[in-house]
């Protein structure tokens, strides 16, 4: 349920769904990992069908399948953590608000080699 509800909230936040979901081989996404014919978890497959998207899990033990995404996540984590490291938060909603504001700020910044954010 957490895996599925996280996807639903993400789709709602962005106001749409990607054409392709590319999860790692965690049990919530993949019932049986296989390099050529992975078996997608039934509930996850139903979610994809409901939203009109496709699930294509990464290949087992192939970290290069999502290398660009992993680097982007690392950049965001470091950038946000660096700005929040001296702050104290007293509840999760306060922390989430701070993270959301920093994410919006980061997403508004132009890309280094392009003139878009």
TrEMBL record:
<dbReference type="InterPro" id="IPR012337">
    <property type="entry name" value="RNaseH-like_sf"/>
</dbReference>
<dbReference type="InterPro" id="IPR001584">
    <property type="entry name" value="Integrase_cat-core"/>
</dbReference>
<dbReference type="GO" id="GO:0003676">
    <property type="term" value="F:nucleic acid binding"/>
</dbReference>
<feature type="domain" description="Integrase catalytic">
    <location>
        <begin position="1"/>
        <end position="117"/>
    </location>
</feature>
<dbReference type="InterPro" id="IPR036397">
    <property type="entry name" value="RNaseH_sf"/>
</dbReference>
<protein>
    <submittedName>
        <fullName>Integrase core domain-containing protein</fullName>
    </submittedName>
</protein>
<dbReference type="GO" id="GO:0015074">
    <property type="term" value="P:DNA integration"/>
</dbReference>
């Amino acid at each position: 349920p957490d895996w599925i509800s996280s996807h639903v909230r993400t789709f709602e936040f962005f106001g749409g769904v990607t054409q392709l979901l590319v999860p790692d081989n965690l049990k919530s996404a993949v019932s049986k990992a296989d390099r050529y014919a992975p078996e997608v978890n039934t509930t996850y497959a139903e979610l994809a069908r409901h939203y009109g998207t496709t699930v294509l899990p990464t290949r087992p033990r192939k970290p290069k399948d999502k290398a660009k995404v992993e680097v982007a996540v690392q950049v965001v984590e470091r950038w946000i953590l660096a700005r929040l490291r001296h702050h104290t938060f007293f509840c999760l909603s306060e922390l989430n608000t701070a993270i959301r504001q920093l994410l919006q700020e980061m997403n508004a910044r132009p890309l280094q080699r392009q003139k878009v954010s």
